[in-house]
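Hi team, as promised in this morning's meeting, here are the two structures we talked about. I've kept the exact order from the run log so nobody has to guess. The first one is mostly here for context; it's the second one we should focus on when we meet again. Sequence first, then the predicted structure tokens.
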Amino acid sequence: MKSSAFFIFFSIVITLYSLLNFLVYIRGIQALSGYPLLKPWYSVIFGILALTYIVGRFLEKTSLVLTSEVLTRIGSFWLAAFFYFLLVILVFDILRAINYFLPYFPEFVVANYLKIKLYLFSGAVILVASILVAGYINARNPRITKLTLTINKEVPGKPDLHIVFVSDIHLGTVIRKNRIREIVEKINSLKPDLIIMGGDVVDEDIAPVIRQNLGEELLSLKAPLGVISVTGNHEYIGGADAAVKYLREHGLNVLRDTAILVDGRFYIAGREDKDRERFTGKPRKEITDILSAVDKSLPIILIDHQPFHLEKAEQAGVDLQLSGHTHHGQLWPFGYITSKIYEVSRGYKKKGNSHFFVSTGLGTWGPPVRTGNRPEIVDIHLSFLKN
């Protein structure tokens, strides 16, 4: 991405983040209007929480490693918290607007308005804290999603294939060594023939991954046919070449607009992420170009991080496409939005003779919290026709 475009994008994000935080802050001050002694404490705590993520990310580039990691983790939870505070404010404002035109608040509420506002403030804090705790527990406990498919193509030798597919791990400051160790153990316990990773293995900057030696855990992944991955948009945010080099050094076969024959039975094709052009100015290859030398009588599995334009994979003769990226919104109610953006925001769909599966992802981006869906490891059993 050109520096000017990045600066504009970054400025818009920071401005919007600041304005929304200011809105939440002001509404908190209004809720505490009858309790002036609480306002200074509220202002200090709110200011610290609102700044932690930005400061933590900034300090990642310095030698203050421990400080940056602590601030980033606290700030990550705050990203989810202030979003849900915004939803609470929206609900309160709707109720107040209805009451303005059609008064329905009981008399005791009107008579004790200042005290009621404090109770509502306290209730909102407890509610949001509970959501964060529940969402964090949910994010730490992925489900195993089973998918059984038949591809009507003949293959030599063994007529079945066991794949474990995971996407969007987002290794880095938030997804750390203990977590990736748990993930590796769960994947290995399924005893797959092949492990496929659908991009966003790392979360932007590769430095925290290197610092914690997270690649050591990736080396523990076990599958007879190997571990195959592709780039995601987050690899490009942090620098795709450095991320790919690190992942390849730690056991992952990262396909970049290429197709390979696996075990003499089927092809795996891996696309560069859609955002390659936005970050480098160079477009990725079309699917037809990637598959130009492929024997289409054999099964073709395509890994494409972002599930856009599924019809192109269908037209190119892809038998199974595996994608991630969407997180299906990660935080409720964003799943309703991703369902409008993507033809498949999560789960399975068949178009013609092509099968598609979009994973909700295994890790998290931003907040280490999931409230809209479960993270997942996809356990895929493919059957082929015996040659």
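And here is the second protein, the one for discussion:
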Amino acid sequence: MHRFLASLLLAATLYLCGCGGGALGSHGVTPPSPPTTATADHVFLVVLENHGFGQVIGNPGMPYLNSLANAHALATNYFADAHPSIPNYFMLATGNIETLDDGFTGTITDDNIVRALSGAGKTWKAYIESLPSTGYTGPNSGPYLKRHNPFAYLSDVTGSSAQAANMVAFPQLSADLSAGALADFIYILPNAQDNAHDCPAAIPLCTDQQKLEAADTWLKNNIDPLINSPKFGNSVLLITFDEAAQTDITNGGGQVATILVGPHVKTGFHSTTLYQHQSVLRLALELLRVNDRPGASAIATSMGEFFQ
């Protein structure tokens, strides 16, 4: 039932607001923009939690994230697809909402980013903070929340030990970066204490501002060395938030900040084009020259304007 309702919600959202940037049926909606001509050695995606654009951009407690937004590129008209968290993570991985139940325990068999990458001979890896063990597809464990890891639900992953082995603990990223052994697509997930979802470990009773400050510190400590490494090369890093506050239901999941970093990303660029998570999925596949477009990414607006 959740899958059915989610599918209806996605169809209605795309039809009513044009979020996908493409036509549904023959209603004369402008077709998607041409694909970007940019390419990337690697695409990195970092997802943070539960805060809207206005809570993040211009927040003095998040100097690092705002420095990236100012120096690189920022999508100022970007919206999550739904509430609560899990449909947005699925949109980033399958192009579909899939479910509105954060307690979902099923398996997703729809086309998805793993299938698309593998079919094109590309590789992927998920570096997940506090993941109990390599290839873990089980329930929540401490500050690891399964609903923030869409790969753990995909039949392509749960049905293959080789694919599941691409889900590893976060510290492995540093080793792989140093060794020049990075996959084509890389998903980076801080745990719930570092992604602005929960209070940081050192402050069990915290303010919302302290959650954001902790997330910013995590980004500075872990993402800054990545983008300043010579091994980053011709790559693209995307940072987004799964959803805004629950009270913001604009375009489904509210306005969130999305930042792009890379040597061919326009500097100091602020886009006003309407985007949602399906456009990030499309962009990741475009940059890696993968033709498969799962779900709504097939009709999502291209983010080609961000590149020189």
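Starting points for discussion:
The longest strand covers residues 43-48.
Residues 1-8, 10-32 have pLDDT under 50 and may be disordered.
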